Amino acid sequence: MASIDDPAISVMTDFKEIAPVTIEPHFRINTALTKMKVAGVRLLLVPDNEDNIVGIITAADILSDLPLKKGQQLEISHDDMDVEMIMTPLNRVLAVDMDTLRDSRVGHIISSLRKHERQHMLVVETDELTRRHMIRGLFSTSQISRLIGRDITDPEYAAHTLAEVCHELG
Question: How many other C-beta atoms are found inside a 10 Å radius of the C-beta of residue 130?
Fold first, then answer.
């Protein structure tokens, strides 16, 4: 079990230990959803032809009304919709730098995810040789909830956490 006072890195999915699940942009969104179910994940990284990550797609994206709206705009059916049509481009994805993370706690990550109303946050790291940013890992509300034993997306959780903070402050 983890707690909100534990180091943030303790609840991060580290891509140095667990390979991320990816899907190419030209695949259908139904294929992406199936791949998520088989892999037991709710987010896929989307690489370009040179394996640079260009975006993400989540189960929430696919199951929302976004495909319906895009389908109407583009005059195509849900079954013909590609990942690239509804993925979130990398420049719009919530992310935190690994160096910033080193002193962060689980509670900080939960606060950031709630503040930005996101289910996921990427962790980026600067490669010392190339000076390029690389995706190092991922925070997920479902993973954090499992590890701390409470649904962190539940409004009751936020109220309870605020009460804990106030109590600690005296």
Answer: 8
Find the CATH number of the domain harbouring 58: 3.10.580.10
Residue with token string 């980026």:
124
> Which tokens sit at 5?
């006072």
Number of structural domains in the chain: 1
- Sign of the Cα torsion 127, 132, 133, 137 reads negative
Over the stretch 12-42, which tens digit does the pLDDT of each residue have?
999 999 999 999 999 999 999 999 999 999 9
Please compute, for residue 96, the number of CA atoms within 13 A of its CA located in the half-sphere on the CB side.
Answer: 24
Contact present, 130 and 112 (Cβ < 8 Å): no
The pTM (predicted TM-score) of the whole model is: 0.84
Q: 144: domain range? A: 8-169
What is the pLDDT, as a whole number, of residue 167?
Answer: 52
In a domain, 3, yes or no: no
Please indicate, yes or no, if residue 2 is contained in any of the structural domains.
no
Residues 130 and 30: beta-carbon distance below 8 Å? no
